[in-house]
Amino acid sequence: MKIAISLRRWLSSLDREAWTRFFIGLGGLIIALGSAMLSTAFRDEGNVLATAITASLALLTAGIVGIATVPYLAKRAALERLRFAMRYELTREGATYLVACIVIAVAALNTGNNLLFIIVAVMLAAVLVSGVFSTWMLLNVDLDISVPEHVFARQKISGRVGVKNPGYFSAFSIEVIPAKQKRQTKGKSSSSGAILQKSIYFPWLGAGQTRFENIDLRFERRGRYLQKEFGVATRFPFSFLKKTRTIPLEREIIVLPSVEPTQEFLESLPMILGEFESSVPGRGHDLYRIRDYAPGDPARHIDWKSSAKAGNMMVREFATEDERNLRIVFDNPAPGILEPEEYERGVELAASLAWHFANENISLLFLAPDYEGSDQVLSFLKYLALVQPGNKQLSVGEIPVTSAYNLVLTGRAPGSIPAELWANSYVIFLGKKRSASS
């Protein structure tokens, strides 16, 4: 009984697909060898048609085994220390060369011509030398990638890829490529994609030399982009195989929501500023300066005389008596309340408003479910970069009614905001039937 259980466990631990391919490949090689031997016998009998058929069958079977079975088994081999974490891809040139080797090998077996055997030996030796040299060359290449820690979505930034050759011989045709990424687990949509999106090519790297190449990075969506490994590849010297060495190297970028002014932002900002200015008693009466008009400036502060003299709109700016406090509240909607596109627009609107007011003479506060960051705008933008629709929402009572003016972005229905909060807040209702009120 114990033997049966042990045998069952052993069988369940086997890689059935690998063993199936192994025996199929073994059977194919036996068929190819038998066909080659039959072709030799038919040749000795002078049967040209049978010789051609059996020789072709041997060639075809050996080619199928070599292309379909051998690379798969090589990838699944357990001797990792002998493979040096390498990945192999057969190129079109390599496939053509392999077919040529098989053709000449079959011809050598059929004719017994020593010259053909020498040619086959030289061709196989070229494959061996190419493999050893390219592997040794890749093992002597070090990699360094520099990327910014934070970036805004849909904004082009620059990174830098550096390769170093600490060895005593030059390296040729080096390519830095994105390593294959593992599938993202469900519920981890805030982590996405690879940082390096395209390959970087270095044609030559001298002994002891380090080369750098600038790369342009652009991320369409907010979120965390994490890449734990990169690849260094080469086809040198004969392009039979594309060899890729996987290098563990972790890099992470937090892509913040875009803060570029959108149509919703431009529509909301003047109304927000008007309500905020009228609700805050901190506007003084002492003239501070007269400056050019900027979008969002109250019309009542336009200095018409100065505008007439200057030929363009000028506004009066007054000294502030009291510090103005603004609390931006992102009332994170629950899943299903908003469509994904509406949710993303709401996140970007919150980010744009926070960015705008951070550059004004305003003391900012931030409030959101599970937000534990500081009152620095970068901390709030990092929260918005990773936030997803959650089951935890702010209760209306959690939004304090203080001297600070509240700017609330919510997915709640109009009419659900208490009168106490409504009197000291500007509320933006997110969604298709979006409206804003104070």
Would you mind describing this structure in some detail?
The strands form four sheets. Strands 1, 3, 5, 6, 8 and 9 form a six-stranded mixed β-sheet that branches. The protein has a five-stranded mixed β-sheet with strand order 13-12-14-15-16, with helices on one face. It has twelve helices and 16 strands. Residues 78-83 and 183-190 have low confidence and may be disordered. 40% of the residues lie in helices and 26% in strands. The longest helix has 30 residues, at 16-45. The protein has helices at 2-13, 16-45, 48-68, 70-75, 80-83, 92-111, 114-139, 263-279, 304-310, 340-358, 377-386, 419-422; strands at 86-90, 142-146, 150-152, 157-164, 171-178, 200-205, 210-217, 223-234, 241-256, 283-292, 314-320, 325-331, 363-367, 405-410, 425-429, 435-437. It has 438 residues and is of the alpha/beta class.
Sketch the topology as an H/E string, one letter per element.
HHHHHEHHEEEEEEEEHEHEEHEHEHEE
How far the N terminus sits from the C terminus, by CA atoms, comes to 78 Å
Taking the sheet with the most strands, its summary is: 6 strands, mixed
Mean pLDDT: 81
Approximate helicity band: 40-55%
* Overall spatial form: elongated
Count of helix runs:
12
* Poorly predicted runs: 78-83, 183-190
Radius of gyration: 35 Å
Would you count the extended β strands for me? 16
Into which percentage range does the β-strand content fall?
A: 25-35%
Structural class, from secondary structure content? alpha/beta
